[in-house]
Design a protein that fits this description.
Layout: E1 3-5, H1 12-26, E2 36-42, E3 45-48, E4 55-56, E5 62-63, E6 68-71, E7 76-82, E8 85-89, E9 94-101, E10 107-122, E11 130-136, E12 139-143, E13 147-153, E14 156-163, E15 166-170, E16 174-175, E17 178-179
Parallel strand pairs: 10-11
Antiparallel strand pairs: 1-15, 2-5, 2-7, 3-4, 3-6, 6-9, 7-8, 8-10, 9-10, 10-13, 11-12, 12-15, 13-14, 16-17
């Protein structure tokens, strides 16, 4: 069963949304990153490419699919994933960039939030242009052209929507005849 989330009363997530709002609403999305491009890196922000060595990253660096972004205490990063989407990774978070495919219609993005929280801003130019998903231990949050946040706390995923809508598919639910991880 799919669920549409439009409001959350979790106190930590609304605060996160407020902090995230200022960054995204004033940021410009660059033309077309080759993978993902870091636009803000504050504090201890590291990237480990698939099969590679962990490296500190800073604004201007690229991140690639299959890689993992980690933020330490009092740290954060903003990454433009596609020309029409960006994420803000909060402190003490671990995120795997599973898939970014810009050559298909709709464009596909799959992120796996292992721990911590992130916010996402999607500005598709038309409905159905982007299939943007964030996996958590509890299920998948699928954005539908919106501004939202996802958090993982004690092994459970939470989502809050600022604008638009997000479809939640609980872990283990069958979608289109296929069981989701």
């Amino acid at each position: 069963m799919n669920h549409f989330i439009t409001y959350s009363s979790r106190p930590a997530v609304p605060l996160f949304i407020c902090l995230l709002g200022g960054v995204f609403w004033t940021a410009r999305l660059p033309a077309a990153p080759q993978s993902g491009q870091v636009t803000v890196a504050v504090g201890d922000v590291k990237f480990t490419p698939a099969g590679g060595k962990e490296l500190a990253i800073q604004a201007g660096d690229k991140v690639s699919t299959g890689g993992t972004v980690k933020t330490g205490p009092a740290s954060r990063a903003v990454i433009v994933i596609t020309p029409r989407s960006a994420i803000r990774i909060a402190e003490n978070s671990v995120l795997v960039i599973e898939e970014v495919t810009e050559t298909t219609t709709p464009k596909k993005v799959m992120l796996d939030l292992k721990s911590g929280s992130l916010g996402a801003l999607l500005k598709p130019s038309k409905p159905g242009e982007m299939n943007f998903n964030i996996r958590t231990p509890s299920g998948i949050a699928a954005a539908r052209g919106t501004f939202f946040a996802v958090a993982v706390e004690n092994g459970k995923g939470y989502a809050q929507v600022k604008e638009g809508r997000v479809e939640i598919t609980p872990k283990g639910t069958k979608v289109d005849g296929k069981k989701k991880k």
